[in-house]
Structure formats: C-alpha cells, structure tokens
Amino acid sequence: MVEAYAGLVVDLVAAFATFYLVAVGQSIVEKSGVLNLAIDGVFFLATGAAVYGAVSGLLGFKGPLVGTLVAGVIALIFGLFFNWITTVLPLSQGALGLSLMFVGYGLGIIIGYPARMKVGNLADYAYPADTTTALATLLAVVAFGVAAYFMLERTSLGAAIRACGENPHAAASMGVDIVKTRLIAGALGFLLIGIGSSFFPLMWLRGWDVKSYVLGYGWVAYTIALAAGRHILLLIPFSLVIGGLFRESVRLQAVLGIPVDLSKAVPYIAALIAMVFYSMTKLKKTLMPPSSLGKPFYREERTI
Amino acid sequence: MIAGILFYATILALMGRNPVEVIYALARSFVSPGIVKDFLILSMLGYALYVSFKGALFNIGGEGQFYIAAIGVIAITLSLMPWSPGQSTAKTILVIVLAVFVATLLGGLWGLLAGVFRGYAGIDEVPVTLLLNYVAYYTVDYLVYSIFRGRHTYGYIRTDEIPEAYRLNYYLPPRTSSGEGLLGSLSSLAYQFLREFALYYAWVIGLAVVALVVYFVMYRTRLGLLIRIHGSNSDYLRAIGVDVCRVAVATLALSGSLVGFTASLYVLGYLGRLPYPVEESTANYGYIAILVAWLAVLEYKLIPLAAYIVAALRDAGINLQVAQLGGTEQTFISIGLLLTVFTVVKVFTEYRIEVRHSG
After folding, report:
1. In this structure, is residue B25 part of a structural domain?
2. Is B345 on the interface with A (CB under 8 A)?
3. Looking at CB atoms within 10 Å, which of A246, B179, B228, B304 has the fewest?
C-alpha cells in the first residue's frame, strides 16, 4: 500500500514538474508580450536535447542533470532568437511561432535520435524513480516558481516585463529598453521551458522516441498557462491537477470509470471554462492575456 | 522561397550532408505525381482558412474541425445508414451526399463554437481554436473506442472500413507501355499525374466548389465585405453599428464548415476509416493549411500555388528518406525553415529600411 502511494507521488511529481516549469516559462515569455506558438516545437526540441545531454557524455559528463542542463541551454538559445526577432521586426508572431514549431520538431529528432539509438534503456540515464528524488524535485520546482513569481511581481525587472506585455510603447517612453527586457524574459522563460521539458523523457516517460512529438505535451503546458491566467502561483494547482489527469488517466478509468479519452479532454475544457470565467468576472484584470500579446512592437496592430 | 531553400541547404551542408543531393531530391518532388493528393487537400483547406484569416481571425482549429467532421462521415456511412447488399444507387448517392452535408455541418458547428467564445466572451480565437482541437481529438478517440469501434479490424482499435460503394475514387489502369526518350518519360509522367487526379476526382470537384464558394461569399456578398472589413478595421464596423460578434461567429462557422466539407471528401476519397488514437496518426493538415494560407500572403489566387509548394515539401521528406538522406526531420525542417525565412523576409518587402546617421 505504502509502495503504491510512493509510486503515485513519484508519478505525480514527474508530471507536475514537467508541466509547471514549462507553463511558468511560457507565462514569463507571454507576460512580456511575445506570443509563443512555437511552444510544442521547443518542448520536443528540449526533450531531444535532454536525451542527447543525458547519454552522450558531453565534455565527459552524462546523466539526467546534464540532460536537463543541455535542454535548458538549447531552449534558451532558441528563445533568445525568437524574442529578439519578434521584437526588432514587425512580423507575425503567430506565423513565425508555428513555423519554428516545425523546425523544433525536426531539430529535436536530429539532436535526440542518434543519441537515443546509442543506448538500450534510457531509464538507466534518467532520474531515479524514488520518493527522495521526487520530493527534492518538488521542492526545487516550487522554489523556482516562487522565485519567478517574486521576480515578476516584486522587482523592477518584473514590472518592466509586464509593462512590455501591456503597453510596450508607453513602457519605452518611460525608459524601458523593450528589446533588452524581452530578451531577458525570453532567456528566463525558455530556460524554464527547456528544464521542464527535460523532465518529460528523463523523469516522466523514462524513455523517448521520435513519435513523442505528436503527443503535443507542449500544447498541454500552453493550455495550463492559459487556464491559470499566466499567474505563476495559480499555475501550481492547475499543473498538479491537469498533470495528474494526464499521468493517471488510466488509473482514473479504473477507479472512477471515466474513459481515458474523456479524462484527457478535461484539461482543455477546463481551460476554456476558466478563460470564460476570467473574462466575465473581476479576475479579468489580473488573469486575462497581456493587452499587447502577439502584437508587433513597431506597428499598432497587424497580425494575419 | 529561394532564400529559404538556400538557408536550408547551408544548414544541411553544415550537418555534413551533400546539399546538392538534398536539393535535387527536393526539386524532384515538385514534379512528383505523389503531391497531387496533398495539393488538393491543402488547397481546399487553404481556402477554408483564408476566409477566417481574411477577417483577422486566426483559426488554428482546422485540425479539430477536420476530425469532428470526419466522425460525422463515419456515423452516417457505417452506423446510421450502413451499406446493404443490393442497395439502390439512389440510396448510395443519398448516403454520400448526407455524409458530406453532416460533415460540413459539424465542422461549421465546431467553428461556430470557437466563434461564440471569440465573439461573445471576448477570448482570443488562437487559444480557443487550439484547445478545441484537443477536445475534438479526444472526443473522436472516445467515439472510435466506444460507439464506432469496428468489428472487422484484425484486433486493431479503429472504425470499420467505409464500404467500397461509398468511396469516391476512380482507378485508371496503369499504362502498359510508354514511349522512349524524353518525350516518352514526359508522357508517362503526365499519365501518372492524370491517374492521381482521376483517383481523387471528387477532390478536384471539391476544390472547384470550395474556391467558387469562397470567391462568391468573400467578394459578392455582404457577409464577405463585413469579413474583409473586420480584418482591416473592426472598430469601423462597430462605429457603423454592425454586430461584430456575429461577424466573428459567422466567419469561423463558415471557415469550419469548409474544413468539414474537405474532411468528408478526405475520408470518403482516401482515409476510409478513422484510427485510434487519432492525434497520433493525423497528417496535421489542419496545421499545415495555416502555413498554406500564410505562404499565399492571404491572396485568393495564390492559395493553390502555396498548397503546391507545401505539398512538394511534404513529398520531399519521403524522397529524402528513400534516398537515405534523412527522415521525417527533413520534412519538418524544410517546411519550418522555409516558412520562417519567408515570414522574416516578408517584412522587408513591406517596410523600407533606412539607416540614418545622426550628426
């Protein structure tokens, strides 16, 4: 019985850590006004990078922590490029994001697949599946989240990031360097997206294959960020519940009789309901998307 | 386009692959009969999404509208009006027409749902349509797993095959002899194209219907005018007393219904059944069509050209695999990079960049 609960904790933490960090990263990026529709591609790219880092013996190091680090760095580079180009050029962020999503899928395979083929069982290179590791991860991930919350809500950098998302023209006239601020937001946000994504192959699945990309787990994290109104602390319960639904969909079927497929649809329906709820109540002010999200900085309004 | 291909070739060269070989494989795809199928489907979907994009409504819910419509075809052809031996031709035609109609309706309703969220709750259509894609996937999965689960599937979980009588294909016989030399090769290639077009004859008709409907609605009706103004200046519409919410709902419903119509032809003309889970075996047409509409720079006439380019790039992925120059990743990277470069370069055609030195 105790073992069963321990197993449940390990499973839930893996799902929570993955979704929470990716959703926090996504929220930071989008709070700065950059619409990131490349999320699923970056997610897959980072999982490939994590596998590469974990098994390749880069500079003589290997193992899950190296995988997480490599995933974070690769995502960070991707994010710097994305946030830079969407800020300095008045292009369609939605179209660029979706185009780069495909690039992310492709690069993920190129980076991850040869490394994956080198080893028999990826679980040997993954994080240990024990409660100590799970609890340490839980603490670290929540600490990351709380730190991100304070950065966004209590520091001048956070105020600048939020101002870039609400009204970059006004922010610029008050002395905020929009490019620099969005680069910082991109670096931090994508770093977290990369780290979170690395937990998917190295803690959750404890495996990886090229078909994983179709599963759209990056979009799940995107959904969680929307459902929680990009509020870093509110993301904690949302990530836990939605992550749990995904991780335990089979168990839910067994215990509650909810069909697996319908339980998978619940997060998306919940996100839709949550967004309607925010839009119709006082929460609109804090939880609705930033006013300038997805709008090119140099022109008033132009998306396709 | 050319900038994108050159950029892609450079990356391949950096990866140690021979870019000339890869570009050759890419180029060959542009004259491959294998692209006819994707070209027709992507053209139809490109027009469907053109409607909403023209109204500045970023419908990325094509995937959901596609599969919700597809399940309608399954319901009609396998469950509600199953084929029986000796069935009259009139009934067969009725079932096909009904299946197409129901699919168009379901796609439209799925689009309408997104429109209601967008119009009346004021939520951006990007997340809404995206979320509805997944709701559609899992709803279809549930239905395929339960109500529509096939009995003759060799143990696989999927729907049964749609009866041959309902399938919209015409098979031209393979050519037994072809002439010699360049002329012979060309005529053989032309025949292969003809066979593909004949095989998907219903899609050719479908494309003509979709293109005409879109042209008529967008450029000959009040709704089309409202959609176009919604795309350029929705405040103006509000100022003259137009119900902007209704325009958003109608736009997304129309876009969704055209996606649904396309989906019905796809199921009846190619897929023949629905797999489980659908999100793992989708061809991602709903997403790829976004790139088609975008690549066509929202120009009505350019949609088929954009569909042709994207279809060729998809086919190139297969050619590259055959030539052992790569796998699925090449399809992703070539399509992704091309569109990325296109999106970036497009800015420079719209803006003039001036470098000014002060003092």
Report:
1. no
2. no
3. B179
Which residue of chain B comes nearest to A299, CA vs CA?
B351
Q: What is the pLDDT of residue B121?
A: 87
Flag whether B268 is in a domain.
Answer: yes
Mutate: best of B63, B116, B134, partner A, most A CBs <10 A: B134
DSSP-assigned states of every residue in B66-101: HHHHHHHHHIIIIIIS---TT--HHHHHHHHHHHHH
Contact between B238 and B38 (Cβ < 8 Å): no
Is the Cβ pair B141, A222 closer than 8 Å? no
Residues on chain B touching A274 (C-beta within 8 angstroms): none
Domain tally, chain B:
1
Print the domain residue range for B248. 40-173+188-297
Please tell me the predicted confidence (pLDDT) of residue B357: 66
The CB-based long-range contact list for B217-225 (8 Å cut-off, 24+ gap) reads B217/B51, B217/B254, B218/B51, B218/B54, B218/B300, B223/B247, B223/B250, B223/B254
- The CB-side HSE value for B47 (13 A sphere, CA atoms) comes to 27
Q: Which residue of A has its CA nearest to B128?
A: A272
Rounded Cα–Cα distance for residues A177 and A183 (Å):
10
List, in order, residues 6 or more apart from B224 with CB less than 8 Å away. B216, B217, B218
pLDDT in tens, A38-57: 999 999 999 999 999 999 87
Q: Which residues contact B323 (CB under 8 A, 6 or more apart)?
A: B21, B25
Q: Which residues of chain B neighbour A268 with C-beta distances below 8 Å?
A: 131-132, 134-135, 138
The string of pLDDT tens digits covering residues A283-299 is: 777 777 888 888 887 64
Q: Is residue B16 part of a domain?
A: no
Mean pLDDT by 10 residues, chain B (359 residues): 72 72 80 93 97 92 96 94 88 96 98 94 86 94 93 88 94 78 85 94 98 97 95 87 93 98 97 91 88 86 93 80 70 82 79 62
Which of A98, A100, A268 minimises the CB distance to B290?
Answer: A98
CB pairs under 8 A between A and B: 152
Let me know if domain A2-287 sits in CATH 1.25.40.
Answer: no
The alpha-carbon gap from A130 to the nearest alpha carbon of chain B, in Å, equals: 31
A35, A89, A264 member nearest B347 (Cβ)? A89
With beta carbons under 8 A apart, name residues in chain A contacting B337: 99, 103
Residues of chain A with pLDDT under 70: 1-2, 211-215, 298-304
